[in-house]
Amino acid sequence: MYVKPQAGRSVPDPERGGLLPPQGAIVPDTQYWLRRLGDNDVIAADPDVQAAKSASVKETK
To answer: Between the N and C ends of the chain, which has fewer C-beta atoms within 10 Å?
Structure first.
């Protein structure tokens, strides 16, 4: 599943070490990430939509 942190949140990524990047990442469907979703630390997102948003922001600058 693809998740990204809620605005203003820093979410540890135990698989990779460090924090979940602000643009999000594909993570395993485990209890840890399901709990992060339930606690509203992260939101489920579509990686294609996120990439398109990033590209459009870069183009407008």
So the answer is: C
